[in-house]
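request received
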Amino acid sequence: MRALLKALLLASLAIIIVGVAQLMQEEGSFILSPIGQIKLNTELPEEPAKLPVYKVVGDESRFVRSSNLWQPRDLPSEAEAIKLASKLTDKYGGIPEDAKLVHVETIYLIGYNLSTKKEEERIPMFLSLIYKREIDRLPVVGPGGEINIDLGNNEVLTFLKIWRKLEYVGDVKIISAEEAFEKLKRGEVINKPMSPLKLEIVQIKPGYYAKGLGEHQKYYKPVWIFYCKDEFGNNVTLAVGAVS
Amino acid sequence: MNGLYYSHMILGYKTTTIADPKIADYFFAYALGDDETVVNSWYYATKATYSSDIQARVMADTLDQFYNDHLHGEGYVAPSENPDDDTFYYATWTC
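response:
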């Protein structure tokens, strides 16, 4: 009898442990990983079997800064700023044809009163435009492959272009999106978040990862890009190496 | 703003960010090497380090601090606000 009770107790314990482990593994359909909790909320795309690799053969990066960035200004409209940006940036090397405008925003300095919980002032400072690179219509993620332009009154305040000259060297076999998802679950991402996150993957695409300003990069190799939303609705983009 | 009396400002992010130690290198290169203001140094350090997925933010107690504060020994430092008026100033940008 005692042996039977012992066996029942052990079996119950085992069931509880397995249950808790499963709960920890999947809260809803969130999966625990070293980068936090991940939920796949999109289809895994059909993989291209191969993608091109590019060798970096030059660097057109440039960073122009202004000490007078933060001051009140009368600014052109955002539509006018787009026209002005291409005209005013020619002397810094301009905007290449494969750069796609992804963001235009007026940057304000905002005064906020904690007692009244009201915005007291909203002072326009400058206009910010961001262009992103595409290679063969595939997105480039990471701090490189972007052009940041800040405009004041008919003047360029900031020009940050992280842009490398590329030369096609050949195609490589790439892993499937499913294999890339397994790597993501193991935390094998190129750009690690600062702390564990709760992420929903909303889109998966092949593309390239470009390193930041002043960083050496010999090749642009294919990556799988996981476009995610965190629990606050912010975009989080993670890249996983795709070369097989 | 009470929490910012002696500290003058908070440099941070609006969104989740990526772990990248270069942010400190850039910030101190601009703030110490080029004697830029604290806000300018943070702005350009975030732009140089991160992609446009990330949004950065700075909050300062007064306008004078926002526009003019340097790291100590690197230029003008605005006075702390006394008495406190409960207003603070902030700006947010896409990196």
